[in-house]
Amino acid sequence: MSYEFRDYPDREMLAIDLANMIAGELRAQLDHSKRVSLAVPGGTSPGPIFDSLSATSLDWDRVDVLLGDERWVPETSERSNTRLLRERLLTGKAAAARLLPLYAEAETPEEKLEELAETIRPTLPLGVVLLGMGADLHTASIFPGADRLAEALAPDAPILLPMRAPGAPEPRITLTAPVLGGALNKHVLIFGAEKRAALEKAKGLPPEEAPINAVLDQAVVHWAE
Ligand SMILES: O=C1O[C@H](COP(=O)(O)O)[C@@H](O)[C@H](O)[C@H]1O
């Protein structure tokens, strides 16, 4: 497994550079395909990259945007990743993109799993994936110790799985490792010394202990303090 590690002087430079890279990859793919897909993380890190991307000129009306994972909460919740996406990415020039939802109104993700997966299937393999990572080495909602971890890591995993984990306050829904890892272009975004040290310590660990390792091959990791 090999990946490129890019170390930036600050978060602002990282956001501009990473947004440019993603836009360039989407443009290159649009030269050969009618539509392309872009999967992105939620959480606290990607907002500044979304701000840069949303201001970028691109044939956004040919781009399908989806989350790599969602917390099973409605968009009215502060914890909704979809809410972040609407507020910070699907605005400005990028408002023309099509959102493929990872949440639908229901008590549990199990009730909507098949329906949501079918909207994603035609977009595979994903064109560009941007992933976040927790200090516990989870990525998307593939957490160490999660109830369906082994299924999410299996080579024949389905597109989507529900996930419940000790570190996650609500049920989750997540794209699985083969779907995320099979993207044409992959980027991982991490901020801060703690996550950098965690990624360093993850070297050589099995994906059951370090789920990020299941998707890192050929990825570019972008880091700033
Ligand atoms: O819960 C989540 O966590 C990860 C990492 O989030 P961050 O706040 O530490 O950047 C994120 O990538 C994922 O999409 C999100 O649902």
TrEMBL record:
The keyword Hydrolase applies. Pathway: Carbohydrate degradation; pentose phosphate pathway; D-ribulose 5-phosphate from D-glucose 6-phosphate (oxidative stage): step 2/3. One of its GO terms (biological process) is carbohydrate metabolic process. CDD domains: 6PGL. InterPro entries: 6-phosphogluconolactonase_DevB, 6PGL, Glc/Gal-6P_isomerase, NagB/RpiA_transferase-like. Its EC number is 3.1.1.31. It catalyses: 6-phospho-D-glucono-1,5-lactone + H2O = 6-phospho-D-gluconate + H(+). GO terms for molecular function: 6-phosphogluconolactonase activity. It comes from the Bacteria. Keywords: Hydrolase. It is an enzyme of class 3 (hydrolase). Residues 9-223 form the Glucosamine/galactosamine-6-phosphate isomerase domain. Belongs to the glucosamine/galactosamine-6-phosphate isomerase family. 6-phosphogluconolactonase subfamily. Hydrolysis of 6-phosphogluconolactone to 6-phosphogluconate. This is 6-phosphogluconolactonase. The lineage of its organism: Bacteria, Pseudomonadati, Pseudomonadota, Alphaproteobacteria, Rhodobacterales.
